[in-house]
């Protein structure tokens, strides 16, 4: 997705939190490490123990500041920190029209690592939503991994798709979906998978409406996505399906799935994109 250069994206409220200390432990490399990192990115879980090594990551609370130099759409197109901050503003604008009494989550752009109520946020744990804090944490260096794995499919739209997915979890938190459908284990029909697929669907719903959100001067924040951008987002969703990631390690086991197959992730994103959030009842679907 491309921001209109003259759009006013200031005042997002996003913050950047500086290093909390510590160092990344060594571990497995190559495709195995990438697969683990992708699990972290798109499930919100912490699979960093699979990377092996000793010592782990030590993180303190770090120091916090407003995201700087993020005033216009041109700034968002030029800087990933600003793009995420601006993206949060557009996502909040959308959900403010969809959820009565909507309250935005906090967005923390992580620089290195930091402690949270849900554990360490770092470049191992990946982007995640922390329900007790109602906060989204993202370390932008993860998108470098996506570019290594997917090439141009890890472009601007894929980055905002990840952000919108995490904001989808915030919708589940504030509307009571998490309480209504608590985690009941793994598997293709589990609440965990249905939760992740619904977040994909919510991300799709926002993506379809994003170009209709405007700033205080009536300027659209974002240009309508191109067919190529939509295709790339769908390809990225497929690439992080449980079955695809497991296939890279040699064995596909549906009973261990936590976020759905490639086909499911594509289908639910497309469902939201085509039909809006009202069509995102993954829990009511017989087979999600």
Automatic annotation (TrEMBL):
Pfam annotation, one family: Zn_peptidase
UniProt KW Aminoacyl-tRNA synthetase keyword: no
Subcellular location: Membrane
Keyword annotations from UniProtKB, A to Z: Membrane, Transmembrane, Transmembrane helix
Transmembrane annotation, as ranges: 20-42
Membrane topology classification: Single-pass membrane protein
Predominant place of localization: membrane
Highest taxon, organism lineage: Bacteria
Name this protein carries in UniProt: Neutral zinc metallopeptidase
Species, as recorded: Microbacterium flavum
Lineage, opening ranks: Bacteria, Bacillati, Actinomycetota, Actinomycetes, Micrococcales
């Amino acid at each position: 997705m491309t921001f209109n250069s003259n759009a006013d994206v200031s005042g997002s409220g996003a913050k950047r939190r500086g290093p909390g200390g510590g160092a990344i432990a060594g571990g497995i490399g190559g495709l195995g490490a990438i697969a683990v990192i992708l699990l972290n990115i798109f499930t919100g879980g912490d699979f960093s123990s699979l990377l092996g090594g000793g010592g782990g990551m030590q993180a303190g609370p770090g120091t916090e500041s407003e995201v700087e130099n993020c005033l216009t759409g041109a700034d968002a197109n030029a800087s990933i920190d600003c793009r995420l901050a601006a993206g949060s503003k557009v996502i909040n604008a959308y959900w403010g029209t969809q959820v009565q009494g909507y309250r935005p989550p906090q967005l923390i752009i992580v620089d290195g690592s930091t402690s949270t109520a849900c554990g360490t946020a770092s470049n191992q744990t990946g982007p995640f939503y922390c329900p007790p804090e109602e906060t989204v944490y993202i370390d932008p260096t993860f998108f470098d991994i996506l570019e290594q794995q997917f090439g141009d499919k890890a472009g601007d739209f894929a980055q905002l798709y990840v952000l919108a997915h995490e904001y989808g979890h915030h919708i589940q938190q504030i509307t009571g979906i998490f309480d209504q459908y608590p985690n009941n284990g793994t598997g293709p029909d589990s609440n965990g998978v249905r939760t992740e697929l619904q977040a994909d669907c919510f991300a799709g719903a926002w993506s379809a409406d994003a170009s209709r959100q405007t700033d205080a001067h009536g300027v659209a924040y974002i240009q309508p996505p191109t067919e190529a951008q939509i295709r790339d987002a769908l390809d990225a969703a497929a690439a992080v399906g449980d079955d695809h990631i497991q296939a890279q390690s040699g064995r596909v086991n549906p009973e261990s799935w936590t976020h759905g197959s490639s086909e499911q992730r594509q289908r639910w994103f497309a469902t939201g994109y085509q039909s809006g959030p009202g069509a995102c009842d993954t829990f009511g679907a017989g087979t999600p």
